[in-house]
Amino acid sequence: MALMGKLRDKTHIVLYILVAAFVGLIIFEWGMNFTGPTQKRGGNVGAVNGQPISAGQYEQMYSLVSESFRQRNPGVEITSRIDAELREQAWNMAVDQALLDQLFKQYGVQVSDEEVLAAVNSDTNPPTIIRQNFTNPETGKIDRELLEKARKDPQAKEFWGRAEEMVTRELKIDKLLMALQTMAIVTDPEVTELVERQFTTFSGSFIPVPFSYAGPESKFPVKDEEITAWYEARKAQFRQPPVRNAEFVVFPLTPSSGDSLRVRKEIDALVSQFASAADDAEFVKIQSDLPESVNVTRTRADFSLAAGEEIFRPTTLAPGKIVGPVADQGYYRLLKIQSVATGEPMASASHILLSVNPVDRADVERGAALARKILGELQGGASFASLAAKYSQDRGNARTGGSLGWFTRERMVPEFSQVVFGARPGQIVGPVLTRFGLHIIRIDGFDNRQIVCSEVARQIKPSSLTSESIKRKAMLFQADASAKGFGETAKLQKLDVVKTGDFTRQSLVAQLGLDEAVASFAFGSKEGAVSEVITTESGFVVMKLLSVNDTGYRKLDDALKAMIRAELVKQKQGVALKAKLAELSKASGGSLDAIVAKDPSLRKVTSSLIRWRDGSIEGYGVDRRLVEAMAGMKLNRISVPVQTSNGYALVVLDARQLEAGVDAEAEKKRVLPQLRKVKQEQFFTAYFEAARRNAKIEDNR
């Protein structure tokens, strides 16, 4: 039993192993303990190409998946929503296992006992279960002494039986990959292009011209029959499983003030006990809803702004000090500080985001004009919070003054962090251009303190009385909605109606996640039906079913028509724009300067550093489509009109060269095995996806 205890300590009770890997497509995490498998129920829950999936197989998969979830998320309750997601994951794993077994049979893949033994004894390439559980962390090699003791321990008999199955499966997968890998061929031109793509740079000039240069959209009308023809020609792109579209109202399970007061009284009573506790770990384990919060490192970024302000007051930051109770993010927290130290610098800031396309200069200039207006209002005395609510397109925090809370330098994009961490508290800076748009930023403060503490946290949950009161409100709404109309009732009661958009039986629904009760209503009711009150983890829901689509294709609805219309308008603008640019090029004699001189609304961009690998154009931005076109151009000759991310361009390249110091032949030798592996992975992934797509899968759960 001492050895078994050592193994438990070594693997934290649960042994995670890779039992099947299909190039990153199929990765199974098996949780395993030494108490034996879960009880299996009889019968079958489905089949793959006629091969049954037993209820026992499915339940074992679910047991392993749920145990793995618990190990990765200690202290997190498995709600009905999470349970449904885990069961869907377990089902998909069972289907993939069946498909793999069929592929093993198709390719005659077999593994002998001798091969399993040789794999377990291998020091160069041991199976995953051996490597993960018997590697000496100090040497990085297999601890053979520990492994042999475990093999001889009678208590580990069941473990080794299951381990043998897993090693066998892993070896079979390796053989299957070997059988398929010859189908993925790498040619010399492919390697050459990859190296050139990685290290080639260009220099040259171009005139970017937006689609609008061809004329306003009204000049390019699109008929309904054109939209229908476009849709029918590409209908395969819109294949989908049966979907539903609905709207709903949520009555959230929000704790009442009485519920909050009750939890506050409970945790108030723990203050003196926590202060005098001889064993913090034991006390937290018993008293806290987050029992792992012992000797943890915390910074202001771990708390809400208000809670962080209270916890990190200079008067409270002392070893042995009890801080709280502090209300924070749905909990009351009580902290016992062990130590205070200096850590990584953090900043607190607020921003107003103006969404622009960073590679569209005209769009950036329009955003900059609005930014100047906002900065003028700030200088005139307007509050940052009110302007954030009015202008910011980061709606997640616009209503709270644009606050981003506390963050480290690495949590933000480099352009944003560079400005923030180079400013001073209270300063307003910007506009700063990032890939998200233009930011006007207010620096709210800096801090680098961190604490090590143990924490008792009590979640503020609604009582049964509160829950019943909220449910009654939902029931009254449901009755009125059924009698007087869903939308009208919601409007009268000033309730927010949430639109789901199209969703399948297995997809997540906005705000509701994966909920079996919601799916049962949606896929078991007629269009226009109003549900009874549905109980979910987040509250009570009343839903109206707006549309039913069991055709197997997305409907040509108004939203799709609008998308197709915009695409057809762009195509027509593109045709006209190409012709217009071709005329300008011909009339100018192939001179970009002559074209710009003739039409001052156009501009020439010159760049000495254009990178093929990432589509970056120094002094302009990123436009992968344009740079890809440059890769095939001849030097010192004006190009035909080439498409960009937002229109077309005329280009003259001056030079094309490899970066200094690059040995192309050496790079090709280095890249060849990597490219071969990537192509094999792509092939394996496509092969397995095709097998799954073409399989006859029966789900009778």
Largest beta-sheet details: 6 strands, antiparallel
Helical content (DSSP H or I, runs of 4+): 40-55%
Tell me the distance between the termini.
40 Å
Number of helices: 24
Got a strand count? 21
Overall form:
globular
Uncertain stretches of 5 or more adjacent residues:
1-40
Spatial order of strands in the largest sheet: 18-17-16-5-20-19
Count of structural domains: 5
Mean pLDDT: 86
Structural class computed from helices and strand pairing:
alpha+beta
Short summary of the structure?
The chain has 701 residues and is of the alpha+beta class. Helix content is 44%, strand content 22%. It starts with a helix and ends with a strand.
Explain the overall architecture.
This protein has 24 helices and 21 strands. The chain is an alpha+beta fold and 701 residues long. The protein has 5 domains: 2-181, no CATH class; 198-237 and 559-658, Roll (Chitinase A, domain 3); 243-250 and 464-549, Chitinase A, domain 3; 257-345 and 455-459, no CATH class; 354-440, Chitinase A, domain 3 (Roll). The protein has a 6-stranded antiparallel sheet with strand order 18-17-16-5-20-19. α2 crosses α3 (80-106), α8 packs across α24 (664-694) and α9 crosses α21. It is globular.
